């Protein structure tokens, strides 16, 4: 055997994927390009034992289980992880639980390595379970084993096994055992599920769960961005709808002020053209449309001045104006004085806001 393989229990050509006793993950060549469902771990780093815990409700006996195992565990209970492999529900052995005990530190190391190597869905199984176990009653005293350089991996039952250092085999407790050497067997995943260590918060991820775990955050970010984009577009469309409605209402108010004789608005553009065509062309009978056309260029020259309201009454156009300063109003008045007859009145003056009223009586 090559030096790099002397610290693990199994031969690389047969094991598929396994952790050696130093915690390094090894994968045989034939498994590198395929999905690995089971990764074997050294049995000498797992305590396989059993204890009787009475109780019918799982939540009750699961709470009591750690305390029932305290005498068999050399570490503090909070530092180990207990995986339940099997529990007898009926018969004389009712309440007998077969468990596997591993330190939390080692379980975390194993599972983190699996995730980093792309084997997040693989199950961890002690390598002694590669040995067959006697299914017939007359073979119950036979213990199957696999020999390694340093240990004998023994299967003592369906859910129990152990790794025995070779120099311990001379002890009295092992001399009376009927040993049967066996070849490693590699059962399908279904038959190994009950022997797996990855339970509770160490349980393996399914393929879909792994995919979601890897890509879930990216999808969530894209989803949030898409939601924000949709919300922004909706708000912009809603704002445009409001502005369009306000413009329509303002246009209708102006039309009614300019043409009070029109009682019902059906097609505002067509009705406005018809009404304007009927307006007299004489300067003394000038209408709001002509005045609006005359003053338009002046307001473009002084964009700081805003029209807040207007009124057409008795052949006079009254404009309520807002300006940040008095100079802008004076500039507007200068631009219009040669075109129209106007009166400018300052209503109020505050810092950065001057309110005024401009009355246009006709064209010059």
Automatic annotation (TrEMBL):
SUPFAM superfamilies for this protein: Actin-like ATPase domain
UniProt domain GspL cytoplasmic actin-ATPase-like: residue ranges: 38-172
Gene3D superfamilies: 3.30.420.380
Chain ranges of the GspL periplasmic domain: 214-360
Pfam families found in the cross-reference section: GspL_C, T2SSL
Location within or outside the cell: Cell inner membrane
Entry's Gene Ontology BP terms: protein secretion by the type II secretion system
Entry's Gene Ontology cellular component terms: Gram-negative-bacterium-type cell wall; plasma membrane; type II protein secretion system complex
Cell membrane found in the keyword field: yes
Keyword list, A-Z: Cell inner membrane, Cell membrane, Membrane, Protein transport, Transmembrane, Transmembrane helix, Transport
Membrane topology annotation: Single-pass membrane protein
Keyword field contains Metal-binding: no
NCBIfam families the record matches: typeII_sec_gspL (TIGR01709)
Family (UniProt): Belongs to the GSP L family.
Biological role: Inner membrane component of the type II secretion system required for the energy-dependent secretion of extracellular factors such as proteases and toxins from the periplasm.
Protein name as it appears in the record: Type II secretion system protein L
Highest classification ranks of the organism: Bacteria, Pseudomonadati, Pseudomonadota, Gammaproteobacteria, Thiotrichales
Gene: epsL_1
């Amino acid at each position: 055997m090559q030096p790099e393989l002397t610290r693990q229990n199994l031969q690389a050509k047969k094991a598929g994927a396994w952790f050696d006793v130093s915690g390094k993950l090894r994968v045989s060549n034939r498994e590198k390009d395929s999905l690995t469902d089971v990764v074997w771990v050294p049995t000498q780093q797992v305590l396989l034992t059993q204890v009787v815990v009475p109780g019918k409700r799982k939540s009750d006996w699961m709470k009591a289980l750690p305390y029932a195992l305290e005498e068999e565990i050399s570490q503090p209970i909070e530092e180990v992880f207990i995986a339940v492999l099997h529990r007898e529900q009926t018969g004389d052995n009712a309440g007998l639980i077969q468990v596997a005990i591993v330190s939390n530190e080692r379980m975390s190391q194993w599972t983190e390595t699996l995730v980093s190597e792309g084997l997040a869905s693989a199950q961890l199984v002690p390598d002694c379970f590669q040995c067959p176990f006697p299914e017939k009653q007359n073979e119950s005293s036979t213990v199957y084993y696999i020999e390694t350089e340093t240990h004998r991996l023994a299967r003592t039952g369906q859910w129990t096994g152990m790794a025995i250092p070779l120099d311990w085999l001379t002890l009295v407790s092992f001399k009376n055992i009927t040993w049967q050497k066996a070849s490693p067997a590699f059962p399908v995943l279904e038959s190994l599920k009950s022997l797996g260590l990855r339970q509770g918060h160490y349980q393996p991820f399914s393929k879909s769960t792994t995919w979601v775990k890897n890509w879930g955050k990216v999808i969530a970010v894209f989803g949030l961005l898409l939601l924000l984009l949709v919300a922004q577009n909706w708000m912009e469309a809603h704002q445009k709808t409001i502005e369009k409605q306000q413009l329509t209402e303002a246009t209708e108010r102006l039309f009614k002020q300019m043409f009070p004789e029109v009682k019902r608005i059906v097609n505002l553009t067509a009705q406005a053209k018809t009404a304007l065509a009927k307006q007299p062309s004489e300067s003394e009978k000038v209408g709001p449309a002509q005045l609006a056309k005359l003053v338009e260029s002046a307001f473009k020259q002084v964009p700081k001045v805003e029209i807040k309201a207007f009124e057409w009454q008795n052949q006079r156009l009254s404009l309520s104006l807002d300006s940040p300063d008095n100079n802008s109003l004076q500039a507007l008045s200068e631009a219009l004085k040669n075109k129209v007859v106007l009166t400018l009145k300052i209503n109020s003056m505050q810092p950065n806001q001057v309110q005024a009223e401009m009355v246009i009586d006709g064209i010059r």
